[in-house]
UniProtKB/TrEMBL annotation:
GO terms for cellular component: oligosaccharyltransferase complex
Function in brief: Subunit of the oligosaccharyl transferase (OST) complex that catalyzes the initial transfer of a defined glycan (Glc(3)Man(9)GlcNAc(2) in eukaryotes) from the lipid carrier dolichol-pyrophosphate to an asparagine residue within an Asn-X-Ser/Thr consensus motif in nascent polypeptide chains, the first step in protein N-glycosylation. N-glycosylation occurs cotranslationally and the complex associates with the Sec61 complex at the channel-forming translocon complex that mediates protein translocation across the endoplasmic reticulum (ER).
An annotated Gene Ontology molecular function: transferase activity
Pathway note: Protein modification; protein glycosylation
Membrane-spanning segments: 386-408
This protein's name: Dolichyl-diphosphooligosaccharide--protein glycosyltransferase 48 kDa subunit
Length: 417
């Protein structure tokens, strides 16, 4: 009986772990009547998501049971909105809910068209984009792909650079968190002079990575991801879509750190027997030589691999950075920085704050204390104090000479009398 109970408990645990590891992706369409036709027209698009190990739930905006969370927990890890003309959701979903979804560190993909509805327009505006509305859908045959490797991958592996794009252009807010992925290389739409200083024009597909590492993709075309577009572009659309989905669903370009270590260099291995020199202080002393290490890994192609780059910087901070230097990288992805503690005591932080286009933001902070020298740790004689030493000995010499002269003169006066 006990064996059967343990077996049932093990099965229940495995089922729970499997359910917990499933990644849920929601695709929202305009109408419920479009679901069957969508599965035919976007079959390759759905398959790309499923191949990444995600469970795909296809719903419509007019579904009254549509909701993003239950009992305070989100039901999905990613949301793909292919409902450009929706004015309002019938379920308990709003633009505010979608923004809270992004604020929770989850990912959203928004696709519009030449005449987007209020939902697509408002959400795009909240994430730094805007649609250039037109009366008819336009084709953009002259396109230019970005060079951000960690989003689009290796450009040399693309079967073609001629993308089939039919829809609308986007305007993109000039912001360090927002990137253009695909742009129109032969601009046909323009913005007013007042908007040109704030926005980048002629963007077709753009991306946002928020400060909490939530990822957002915005496209001005739903047709870009159809099976027909995949075939027309000789698989260029499909290859780009595959790379974008990997990036959006966080199946690549993820950084993590581990094995943060720091130690004092040039330490005598034999412990001191002098009680006056023994200390239980765990921090560092001013002017110590320190070595700092951190291991950084990159998630790529389903595995964690060493991340090697020559632009990772280390900072030793107390309000402001007292030390800032580029770290040396080893073959296993371990970064090393060696530096001297400044001649100012206090509470410091050893920080690595790394931001690179397409990669998740990496931040590591370790707090340490730096104390001044103890009374028995100073040099016995300090070079800068030599003038004072000399003046002391000179004063002693002057006193001796004065005493000798004074006593000798007194003796001469008595003899003369």
């Amino acid at each position: 009986m006990a064996t059967i109970f343990r077996l049932l408990l093990l099965i229940a645990t495995l089922v729970q772990l499997t359910a917990a590891n499933d990644k849920q992706t929601l695709i929202v369409l305009d109408k419920s009547s479009n679901i069957s036709s969508f599965k035919q027209s976007h079959s390759n698009f759905v398959k790309l998501i499923q191949d990444l190990g995600h469970n795909v739930d296809i719903r419509s905006a007019d579904d009254s049971t549509l909701k993003l969370s239950k009992y305070g927990e989100f039901l999905y890890d990613n949301i793909i909105l292919l409902c450009p003309q929706v004015q309002v959701f019938r379920g308990s979903v709003s633009v505010k809910d979608l923004l809270e979804f992004i604020d929770a560190g989850r990912n959203v993909f928004l696709a519009g068209n030449h005449a987007p509805g209020s939902i697509a327009t408002e959400l795009a505006s909240e994430v730094g984009f805007g649609f250039k509305t037109t009366n008819v859908k336009r084709d953009y045959p002259n396109t230019k792909l970005t060079d951000i490797f960690h989003i689009i991958g290796d450009k040399s592996k693309y079967p073609s650079t001629n993308f089939a794009y039919s829809g609308a252009q986007l305007k993109m807010l000039k912001n360090e968190l927002i990137f253009k992925i695909l742009e129109n290389n032969a601009p046909v739409d323009t913005l007013g002079p007042s908007s040109s200083s704030k926005f980048l024009t002629n963007v077709l597909i753009g991306a946002l990575q928020a400060r909490n590492n939530a990822r957002v993709l915005v496209s001005g075309s739903v047709d870009f991801f159809t099976d027909q577009a995949f075939e027309t572009s000789k698989s260029a659309n499909k290859h780009l879509t595959q790379e974008l989905l990997k990036w959006l669903l966080k199946e690549k370009s993820i950084l993590r750190f581990s094995q943060v270590e720091h130690k004092k260099l040039n330490v005598d291995p034999t412990p001191s027997t002098d009680i006056a020199r023994q200390s239980h202080f765990k921090g560092y002393t001013i002017m110590d030589d320190i070595e700092y290490k951190i291991k950084i890994e990159l998630f790529q192609d389903g595995a964690w691999v060493p991340y090697k780059s020559n632009d990772v910087q280390f900072e030793f901070v107390r309000l402001d950075a007292f030390v800032r230097k580029t770290m040396d990288v080893q073959e296993d992805g371990t970064y090393v920085a060696r530096f001297k503690v400044p001649d100012v005591y206090g509470v410091y932080k050893m920080e690595v704050d790394y931001k690179k286009d397409g990669l998740t933001y990496l931040f590591s902070s370790t707090q340490v204390s730096v104390r001044p020298l103890r009374h028995n740790e100073y040099e016995r004689f300090i070079y800068s104090a030599y003038p004072y030493y000399l003046s002391a000995f000179l004063m002693m010499g002057y006193l001796y000479m004065f005493s000798f002269v004074y006593l000798y003169q007194q003796k001469e006066k008595r003899n003369n009398k």
